[in-house]
Amino acid sequence: MSHVKAGGSSKNIHNNAGRRLGVKRFGGQTVNTGEVLVRQTGSTKIAGPGTFISRDYTIHAAKEGIVSFQQVKKRKFTGKTERRTQVSVA
Prior knowledge:
This protein has 90 residues and is an all-beta fold. The chain has one domain (22-89): CATH 2.40.50.100. Helix content is 0%, strand content 41%. Strands 1-3-6-5 form a four-stranded antiparallel β-sheet, with no helix packed on it. It is elongated. The protein starts with 21 loop residues before the first strand and ends with a strand.
């Protein structure tokens, strides 16, 4: 006899839609105020000058201009430095 109850199978649980994350405006493109530049889970890219970051870590343009991406060194709380991509609008 089994010592564990039968735990059926669930087949139709992995059919949720994708979250449409990623870069929405690329380097060199012109943007208007408030446009979404990057949708992300967590702060993988950081907001630079001319941008702001919202509650769900989406980076928006704070002013009109041209988007640019650059690699910067960011110091973590532990003292370790990591290279991160910074999004800015100039």
